[in-house]
Write a structure and sequence with these properties.
The protein has one domain: Rossmann fold, CATH 3.40.50.150. Helices cover 26% and strands 30% of the residues. α6 crosses α7. The strands form two sheets. Strands 6-7-5-4-8-9-11-10 form an eight-stranded mixed β-sheet, with helices on both faces. The protein has a three-stranded antiparallel β-sheet with strand order 1-2-3, covered by helices on one side. The chain has 223 residues and is an alpha/beta fold. The chain has seven helices and eleven strands.
């Protein structure tokens, strides 16, 4: 799939997917967006826990790499499960990492490349961070464990409307652990309605630069 490296406002880079006509991350700041939504509102809710993370839309691997880096101070033991139908190749991944200072300065080459290679098998990034990247269509994905944290980072509802339907959301929310957290950059009314229909407690949170609001939702323990 054709991609193009694009600089963003915080000095990090993103990729533009020519097929979907969208960037993988915000042009207002790729790392800033991921840190705000997925790390600050998601991962930092856990410290010294044994947790499972599901990412729908693994994309560039940025959220996974930032989670690995951040977890070195949080002390969790993490199983990270990423789902991606169109993985980017090493020839795209390596330039992306080298143009993203927040990643390039904190991961050595041997560690960074693990976030791109060895699809469809669980690998050890470190003793406290195991990664499974599946090259699979979401329709074929069958969750087989409970997840404490879900990063929902698919392309937008305008581009991939099928990813945001009630039934597709139900498939993963059913596997959200009690008191688990769901975070996403999208804040559309229909998404909030669907998440509430699935018994999540939905909160509209301030967004990063260029985005007014994002969503953080938690599992309703009464259901």
């Amino acid at each position: 799939m054709n991609t193009e490296i694009i600089s963003t406002d915080d000095g990090s880079c993103t990729l533009r997917n020519e097929h979907f006509g969208e960037t993988y991350h915000s042009i207002n700041g790729a790392v800033a967006e991921s840190m705000h939504i997925f790390i600050n509102l998601g991962l930092r809710s856990f410290c010294n826990h044994n947790i499972s993370i599901l990412e729908i839309g693994y994309g560039t691997g940025l959220n996974a790499m930032l989670s690995f880096i951040e977890n070195q101070s949080l002390g969790n033991t993490i199983f990270y499960h990423g789902i991606e139908k169109f993985p980017i190749g090493k020839e795209t991944f390596l330039p992306f990492v080298s143009h993203t200072p927040d990643i390039f300065s904190k991961l050595d080459d041997d560690t960074a490349i693990k976030f791109c290679e060895d699809w469809n098998s669980e690998i050890e990034i470190s003793p406290t961070f195991h990664l499974l990247k599946q090259n699979i269509d979401f329709e074929s994905f069958v969750p087989n464990r409970k997840y404490d944290l879900i990063y929902f980072d698919a392309f937008s509802p305008e581009t991939q409307p099928e990813m945001w339907t009630l039934e597709n959301l139900r498939k993963i929310i059913n596997n959200l652990a009690p008191d688990g957290i769901f975070v996403t950059y999208c804040c559309k009314g229909i998404l909030k309605q669907n998440l509430r229909a699935l018994d999540l407690i939905v909160k509209r949170m301030p967004g990063p630069k260029g985005k007014r609001h994002v969503i953080r939702a938690t599992k309703n323990l009464a259901h």
